[in-house]
């Protein structure tokens, strides 16, 4: 039980690192700021959803399935940006709606989603190792 608690703590810490970085990527003004403003958040967005799902599903199989499903769902959300119904436009006027649904379809988001899911998968593998290392010590 302690290893589960420690792993949960590392998931929470990871989320507390990724979320502010993702939000700040929109305001970054240093070198390569345009890339960070437009695409850096995409990568962190994918990692966040991988971590969030891993909080609930921690099996070895989930480590592979989570990034795949995160990629599929965010690709669907990207295509959903082509659809501008009054309801979706109303949701997009809120900050949370804009963050979750996005506003503008961009093909170049897809490789960044893929990169984010690969990095998310690597992150989940490390978190899983923490859980197993704690088990073998206990």
Write a concise synopsis of the structure shown.
This protein has 138 residues and is mainly alpha-helical.
Strand content: under 5%
Coarse morphology: globular
Helix-strand topology string? HHHHHH
Question: First CA to last CA: what distance?
Answer: 10 Å
What is the typical, i.e. mean, pLDDT?
91
Our count of domains comes out at: 1
**Helix tally?**
6
Number of strands: 0
Helix content: over 70%
Biggest pleated sheet: none
Please state the structural category: mainly alpha
Low-confidence stretches: none
Alpha-carbon Rg, integer:
16 Å
Description:
The protein is mainly alpha-helical. The chain has one domain (2-137). The chain contains six helices and no strands. It has helices at 2-25, 33-56, 60-80, 86-92, 95-101, 109-137. The model has no long low-confidence stretch (mean pLDDT 91).
Features of the shown structure:
6 helices; 138 residues; 81% helix; mainly alpha; globular; 0% strand
Task: Outline the secondary-structure elements.
Layout: H1 2-25, H2 33-56, H3 60-80, H4 86-92, H5 95-101, H6 109-137
């Amino acid at each position: 039980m302690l290893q589960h608690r420690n792993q949960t703590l590392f998931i929470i810490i990871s989320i507390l690192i990724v979320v502010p970085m993702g939000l700040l990527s929109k305001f970054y003004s240093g070198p390569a700021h345009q890339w960070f403003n437009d695409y850096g958040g995409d990568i962190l967005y994918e990692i966040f959803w991988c971590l969030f799902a891993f909080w609930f599903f921690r099996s070895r199989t989930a480590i592979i399935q989570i990034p795949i499903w995160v990629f599929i769902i965010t690709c669907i959300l990207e295509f959903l940006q082509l659809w501008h119904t009054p309801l979706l436009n109303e949701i997009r006027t809120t900050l949370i709606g804009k963050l979750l649904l996005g506003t503008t379809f961009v093909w170049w988001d897809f490789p960044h989603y893929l990169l984010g899911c690969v990095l998310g998968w690597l992150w989940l593998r490390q978190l899983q190792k923490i859980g197993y290392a704690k088990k073998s010590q206990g």
